[in-house]
Amino acid sequence: MAKQNIEMRYKRQEMFDITEKELTPFSVNGKDYLVYGNVNLSVFVSDYCNASCNFCVAQLRYFHDGVDYVKQAITDEKEYFDKLKIMLDTVKPLNPSVSLTGGEPTLDPKLPTMLDVLDSYDVRKRTITTNGSGLLKKVSGSSDTIMDKLISYKLQYLNISRAHYNEEINNNIMNLKNPSLSDAELEEIIHISNENSIRPRLSCILIKDGVNSVKEMIRYMDWAESIGVDNVVFRQLMKFDEKSVKPGRIPDFCKSQDVSLIQIWESLDKDKRFSFTTQILGYYYYVEVFKYKSIDMVSEMADLNLIENEKEKSLKKTNGIPVIYELVFHPNGNLCGSWREWKEVII
Ligand code: SF4
Fold it and tell me: How far, in Å, CA of 97 to CA of 200, rounded?
């Protein structure tokens, strides 16, 4: 690994400066912003999830701010879709990549119509993040499955959270309740994806009581490769502010089950089965990519503490013009620069 890559691994966000990147001037309702040039729009479909992971980042973001995970949602469908369209009209000049997320987006009855609306806006780099449970379920009143709908939508990236290569251990770690996703169903989904130009990716959390070492990561990737996957992401548990976090099972778990990626990367540097490909420095996350056999192995660490500091830092550099690092459309109809629906509200 070259010296400058090593330097970035250890310094990480110290070296990050959003103002060195392309920033697009953007005005909404008389307020000026600068938007990161390759901005992503996350459409948070719903907070409902049939799993109950002890490492759920959707929930941890709220606890980090010392509040409960309660998301208000528009219940009237017409009102929701009107707001969705107003939001898409607003962000159209930014041409964001679009990710669907939650909660579990494949179990939300609005999803098929949302896909039609997003497709009509010709959105870019289409991704969904899911635990996979609803993918083979039939759309109400149709013979199509959610997977069929995603194919018609021309989905490009299918991110499936799978915390272990063993189905039973995975279901236990994720506390997956009905419907869960069997290995046979997962294989079917991977096969359908590969046949329809959708790139599947498996996402695995590193935890002490699960995938916790290079040896276990190799087992996971060998299993992934055997079912037709060539893209795996391993995530270190998210860091957060231990002083202000609302205590509970998720922060407790994240603290006690942490597996350090730094130590894993240091082992990979000496392991001939892996070759370093690239690294990505984000505003609160840092990624290293390696090649293992046919697998593009992504590994990511992130720290919620860094977000506010980074935003304050950039505000000074832009003479007070807020920078939008990412866009999030919330179930209550707010478009924000934040994963909390009351923060950095744009419309
Ligand atoms: S599957 Fe995702 S959204 Fe659901 S509980 Fe687990 S981490 Fe949270």
Answer: 17
Domains for the chain: give ranges and CATH numbers: 3-336 (3.20.20.70)
Rounded alpha-carbon distances, angstroms, from residue 8 to 20, 214, 262, 302: 16, 22, 12, 14
Residue spans of the chain under pLDDT 50: none
CA 50 to ligand 1: nearest atom: 4
Cβ atoms of 159 and 42 closer than 8 Å: no
Residue 199 pairs with which residues in a beta bridge? 157
Distance 55 CA to ligand 1 centre (A): 8
With contact defined as beta carbons under 8 Å apart, do 303 and 241 qualify? Answer: no
pLDDT for 249 equals 97
Model confidence pLDDT, tens digit, residues 66-120: 999 999 999 999 999 999 999 999 999 999 999 999 999 999 999 999 999 999 9
Q: Is the CB of 161 under 6 A from ligand 1?
A: yes
With a 6 Å cutoff on the Cβ, whether 131 touches ligand 1 is yes
φ, ψ for residue 297, nearest 5 deg: -100, 110
Of 198, 193, 44, the residue nearest 125 (C-alpha):
198
| Residue 155 in tokens | 């989905």
